[in-house]
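Here is an idea for our session: we take a single protein and study its fold together. Which protein we use is up to you, so please pick one and set it down. Once you have written the record down, we can walk along the chain together:
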Amino acid sequence: MAGRNFLFVPGPTNVPERIQRAMMVSMEDHRSPRFPQLTQTIMAGLREIFRTETGTPFVFPSSGTGCWEAALTNTLSPGDKVLAARFGQFSHLWIDMCERLGLDVQIVECEWGTGVPLQQYEDILKADTQHQIKAVLVCHNETATGVTSDIAGVREALDEAAHPALLFVDCVSSLGCIDFRFDDWGIDMAVSGSQKGLMLPAGLGILCASPKALAMYPSSKLKRAYFDLPDMIQSNATGYFPYTPALTLMYGLIESLKMISEEGLDNVIARHHYLAEGVRAAVTEGWQLKLCAKEQRWHSDTVSAVMLPEGIAGAEVIARAYQRYNLSLGGGLSKVAGKLFRIGHLGDMNEIHLMAAINGAEMAMLDCGVNVQPGSGAAAAGHYWRTHEAPSGLCAMPKPALAKSSAARTNTALAPS
């Protein structure tokens, strides 16, 4: 098929050419005297992304799922009780892992399209006067439904209950995109991966652990080997790893961290919100469709899940977009399978790039019989972006002042000299 594939799944995301070039390196000895400099550069950059001075970052050759397992097995014991809400596919999978590892999961079932129920969490924690709950698990950004939960609110619930449980957060699709504050929110384990906001191929599991979490290791009885944190701590202290690291991805990660630092983390977060608002305008104002997220407070700035009208199969829209327009959209998962499609808008992206997703999705919907006004999505998104100030990361030069209306400019041009 002529032209490039336009990738708008919520991960893996587009890898910038700058990062691709950084990964094109010759192999080297990962036991050499110069290797620790690479490790130290990565760890310092990750602390900035996590916004932590007290946390310890870890980088595993794995996916984020591996770091889920590392977080659990290095802190908990068989039969320990954990609290978790299920409101999407990825919160469900974390719960499933807990159960497979022999943990006792207190599950709070939530409507898909909502996030963590803060008051219910607080009530449960206050009722747990014996402090049997050892950890609280939260999915910061649920990509299956396009929902972001309030992590600061979860910390407040723990504090209001004066509960000592560890706070574990999945930030796979939020780190480097949505405001995330490891220290300020009192997070104990933050789990992420390379293929989302860090703009890399999949292959790196990224974890950040608090001193409180690391202190749990001696009492933890869950088995671990590959994901043993003391092994990593011992090797990382000298700049090395207990096994062969993913060298090319690590060079790419250094470049990714440089790009984020150059733009400024706050600017990166503002850019994601600005772009997401344009997509949401396309969906709700242009196409007159609904998002899976039930309320504005749940809106995700990294992925929008677009609900389709009754009788329209999401798989058909996604297949049409791919086969006819070379556009990759995310599909619905589990409970929302077939009911929606997802537009990922995270990582290396700008307005014109996102217009490809909006226009391609609109054409695919029209082809599949969805009654939307042609051009309405791009018009609504464009109107939002043109009438709101863009973050500095999108501006090569200041926006020109619009001193005259188009009619005034026309009249001036036609006036006799």
Summary: Residues 18-262 form a domain with the Aspartate Aminotransferase; domain 2 fold (CATH 3.40.640.10).
